[in-house]
């Protein structure tokens, strides 16, 4: 693996850094306090091509490889994880899955709109009763002529109240021994689909996380993505790539923690000297720095495997597991460097810690990543 960025990759990273400084950083505290990122950010993300990364140009995408995608995701995560999550879901979990598994008609219908930011996508897998055990979901889609009628509910759906389309997973077959989950692309203005924003999140407060309720939601049979009964494997393949994106976002959080800790330690004086001159403060900073490097290398390795067409699922679980735990540690260490000032939101590190915490929970908790890695190593499923 070549660890040197190409000119193109460095240019896209710089573009993302500048975008964040201009469009995100000035609003971070306001969006976090108000629990609301300004939705106009979506169009801006589309205009610079970030919502079309890795999507072929013939479908309105901006191309690029997965390392470029990770670099942009890292910079967005360094700026604001709420904004990063919009891209990780609308592009990472929805558009990229349509590009891999969608019919020609589905690609033409959704990809140009998702890549430009004209439309937003959300990923509807989790339900009130099923989180880690996603395969036992209860939302049901029943065939009725040339349509499916869907009933059920979805919980914790990122972009849920903003989205124009939900990549929805529903049970189409109950026969014993059948993995009867199928995937559907459901426009969110379909009658019978209602949404409720979930307020009071610890972190990612700017993000529109929602509960979706589906009552007699009728979609044409052509809304099914992939073959009937293949929805669960489709969801797992989307999440494997999604974990790379979460890991990159976590690298961004850890890098932001490092930047803030180094800057503050140089400015803040106690006992007549900058706190950077104390060995115990340097220990906190060096621990963050090692976590940043290790998490970034694991993440880039996944991008490299994806770009070379090799198996990447276990590497993605390792990167997501390590980077999410590292982001929590890094933000917590940075908060310690800030002392009491770290505990108020005029300073950046408290938000980094709140945002980092969910990374060990979604797209598979840390325990679930360990079970995936353990199964790959031993050949035994411990789920
Ligand atoms: P549970 O599965 O109930 O787990 C509870 C605890 O039990 C955890 O510690 C878990 O690790 C442990 N556990 C469970 N099973 C095992 C086992 N076999 N062995 C060991 N330990 C186990 N979902 C979507 O579909 N789309 C989204 O866009 C989305 N966005 C989200 C955004 C936010 C802010 C949050 C908080 C969640 C989001 N989720 C989304 C849902 C998320 O993926 C789930 O919360 C996650 O999968 C965990 O499920 P759960 O919360 O039901 O926890």
From TrEMBL:
Residues 229-377 form the Acyl-CoA dehydrogenase/oxidase C-terminal domain. It comes from the Bacteria. GO terms for molecular function: oxidoreductase activity. The keyword Oxidoreductase applies. Keywords: FAD, Flavoprotein, Oxidoreductase. InterPro entries: Acyl-CoA_DH_CS, Acyl-CoA_Oxase/DH_mid-dom, Acyl-CoA_Oxase/DH_mid-dom_sf, AcylCo_DH-like_C, AcylCo_DH/oxidase_C, AcylCoA_DH/ox_N, AcylCoA_DH/ox_N_sf, AcylCoA_DH/oxidase_NM_dom_sf. Its cofactor is FAD. Residues 6-118 form the Acyl-CoA dehydrogenase/oxidase N-terminal domain. Its EC number is 1.-.-.-. Signal peptide: none annotated. Gene3D superfamilies: Acyl-CoA dehydrogenase/oxidase, N-terminal domain (1.10.540.10), Butyryl-CoA Dehydrogenase, subunit A, domain 2 (2.40.110.10), Butyryl-CoA Dehydrogenase, subunit A, domain 3 (1.20.140.10). Residues 122-217 form the Acyl-CoA oxidase/dehydrogenase middle domain. Belongs to the acyl-CoA dehydrogenase family. PANTHER family: ACYL-COA DEHYDROGENASE, ISOVALERYL-COA DEHYDROGENASE, MITOCHONDRIAL-RELATED. This is Acyl-CoA dehydrogenase family protein. It comes from Streptomyces lateritius.
């Amino acid at each position: 693996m070549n660890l040197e960025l190409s000119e193109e990759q460095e240019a896209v990273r710089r573009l993302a850094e500048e975008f964040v400084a201009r469009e995100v950083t000035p609003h971070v505290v306001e969006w976090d306090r108000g629990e609301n990122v300004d939705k106009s950010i979506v169009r801006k993300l589309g205009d610079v091509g970030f919502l079309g990364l890795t999507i072929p140009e013939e479908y309105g995408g901006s191309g690029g490889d997965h390392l470029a995608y990770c670099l942009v995701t890292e910079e967005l995560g360094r700026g604001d994880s709420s904004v990063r999550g919009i891209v990780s879901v609308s592009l990472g979990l929805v558009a990229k899955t349509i590009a891999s598994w969608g019919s020609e008609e589905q690609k033409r219908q959704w990809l140009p709109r998702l890549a430009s930011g004209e439309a937003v996508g959300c990923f509807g897998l989790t339900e009130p009763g099923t989180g880690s055990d996603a395969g036992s979901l209860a939302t049901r889609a029943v065939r009725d002529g040339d349509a499916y009628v869907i009933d059920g509910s979805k919980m914790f759906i990122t972009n849920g109240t903003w989205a124009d389309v939900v990549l929805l997973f529903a049970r189409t077959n109950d026969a014993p021994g059948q993995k009867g989950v199928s995937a559907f692309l459901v426009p969110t203005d379909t009658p019978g689909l209602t949404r409720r924003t979930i307020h009071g999140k610890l972190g990612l407060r700017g993000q529109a996380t929602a509960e979706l309720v589906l009552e007699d939601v009728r979609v044409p049979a052509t809304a099914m993505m992939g073959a009937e009964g293949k929805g669960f494997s489709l969801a797992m393949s989307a999440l494997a790539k999604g974990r790379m994106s979460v890991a990159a976002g976590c690298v961004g959080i850890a890098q932001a923690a490092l930047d803030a800790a180094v800057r503050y330690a140089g400015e803040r004086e106690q006992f007549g000297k900058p706190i950077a001159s104390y060995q115990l403060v340097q220990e906190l900073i060096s621990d963050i720095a090692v976590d940043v490097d290790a998490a970034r290398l694991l993440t880039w390795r996944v991008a490299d495997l994806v770009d070379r067409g090799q198996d990447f699922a276990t590497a993605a679980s390792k990167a997501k597991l390590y980077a999410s735990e590292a982001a929590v540690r890094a933000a917590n260490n940075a908060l310690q460097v800030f002392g009491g000032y770290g505990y108020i939101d005029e300073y950046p590190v408290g938000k980094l810690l709140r945002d980092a915490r969910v990374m060990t929970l979604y797209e598979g908790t840390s325990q679930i990543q360990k079970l995936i890695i353990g199964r790959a190593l031993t050949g035994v499923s411990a789920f």
